[in-house]
Amino acid sequence: MTQSTDAPETTDAPELVLAERHGAVLLLTLNRPERLNAWNLALEERYFALLDEAEIDPEVRVVVVTGAGRGFCAGADMEDLSQLGTVDPDTLADERTRRPRERPLAFRKPLIAAINGPAAGLGLVQALYCDLRFATPEAKFTTAFARRGLIAEYGSAWLLPRLVGQSRALDLLMSARVVLGDEALAMGLVDRVLPGESLLSTTLAYAADLAENCSPASMALIKQQVYEAMDSDLPSAIEVSTRLMHESFRHPDAAEGVHSYLERRPPRFAPLDPA
What we know:
The chain has 275 residues and is an alpha/beta fold.
């Protein structure tokens, strides 16, 4: 059973991911600052469990993820990676029972990364799994894989070209060079670059605007449309949007959206159906 985000269990060890509510926005903070929030299986399990809880919590409408201390996520913990060649394959059998590492891609609510420092390797991949990425000018991005004798992991070879184009994706993947925030913005890797002191507050304010003024059902369907259209053609995307538009006219949120506009008041959209 996963822990409640409202009443975390008290233990001697710090939580690997902190959960903090800001109204209808849930802030998740990767919390291994002494390791630049390097990714390990325990952190992964905690992060994905919190996403699972947020998925079915009607009070949570948007999730923001960031890192504690100086980093967002410095990638897979190198101490774990150093053991790869000596691990008995039989001990990895539980891989099949864990959530897929791309679990954030299936999250139906908006997921926004506030990238406050290095996002490397698997840490960059997790940022790519978010719907939007806000960063500081000093944030550092690197795929890292080629410099570790590895390949483009966990769908990054599919995601990166769709964000930055084929040649830029190949540049980032083959060279594994470090890209800072302003260059990341210019190539489309991130959506906004903000001063470090206002990164989190601005990201939370953006998330709060989504939570307060946008239909959760609409946002979930828009996410589904965009990700499905990436593997579709234009006629198919138009056909899907026509069907969804007809369905949306019958949804209570459509009437609420019109009435709230005409009455000049904030909308009162229903929470996303957990099903």
